[in-house]
Amino acid sequence: MKRHRLTVSLFSFLMLILIGIVCSNMQSQLANQILQARGMSMEARIVKPKKDVEIKTVLRWIKKKYPHDSVQMQLQNKYEKKEVLIWAQNRNLHYFPVTQGRFFTSADFTGRVTFAALAASAEVPKLTTQGNTYVVLGGHYYSVVGTLKRVPYQGVKTFYLTTGPNQETAKDSISDYVVYVDGSKSAISHIATYLQSKTWWPDFVKRNRQRRLTLLMPEALLILFLTLIAMAAMALDAWLLYLESRRTHITGDLLTNFILNKSGRFLFFQVLEGVGAYILLVWRAYIGHRGMLAMLLIGVVLLEVCAYIGTLLYIYNHGEKIENA
């Protein structure tokens, strides 16, 4: 009987690992969507400014109005479509994959120096000297810090420049750009109003919203299926415990203590399995949002415990009827 319960425990642990792997795959697909969306979330909107003010004025207004918000702006030049200015606050831009060097960091937006990052086949005047590459635009030289990987739906000829309140690129009028804004709904709405513009859905948001359900539904159903199997395994263990208790021929308080001792140790071991599965998955699998994985595993373990206790209570209330059936 102990061998059977050990088998159930190992099987339950395997289900937790499989559920974690499916969660990892889901997060990987979501990460790919973010990459294909030029590093922006599904809350991103297009703003077409009518207000004729310098970019630095807008950035200072945002920093004053929303100093603690996570905001990213990508400004696409109306006249030079391949040029995109990037500015962000309280946000890590590590999800831009590079083949060489790095992408922009928060420090790049606060200084006076403008940096450049190039798409895989960016068409822009460049100068290479002493091992350093510079983008040459309007008599200005911008140091290239990285080259991006090829990603579906991203322009391979685009080049990116930093902008900030103290940088040369922020002296242009924002009305010369189409602005992609990513942040909270409230912040985006106020920014659009400030720039005297409406908001529109970017193509990548429309595309990814349509694809997200079809992409993630199979994984969600698989997680549900694996969870049901894990709950069935726990119900089986409760049945094995019932059979074991019947063979002891004990009754009353002794039977209650027997069940509590066996169940307590077993359920404690299940919690340890959940913790172990989390540690193993974080160590070996791609997990972009650890909180999501933790909540998923906690939910599965709680459902397993409920299935175990519920089955145990049902069997001990109707055990004789079940055996005679």
UniProtKB/TrEMBL annotation:
Classify the source by domain of life.
Answer: Bacteria
User: Membrane-spanning residues where?
Assistant: 220-243, 264-286, 292-316
Keyword Transmembrane among record annotations: yes
Instruction: Name the UniProt key words of this record, in alphabetical order.
Output: Membrane, Transmembrane, Transmembrane helix
This chain's protein is named MacB-like periplasmic core domain-containing protein
Source organism per entry reads Lactobacillus porci
At the highest ranks, the source species' classification is:
Bacteria, Bacillati, Bacillota, Bacilli, Lactobacillales
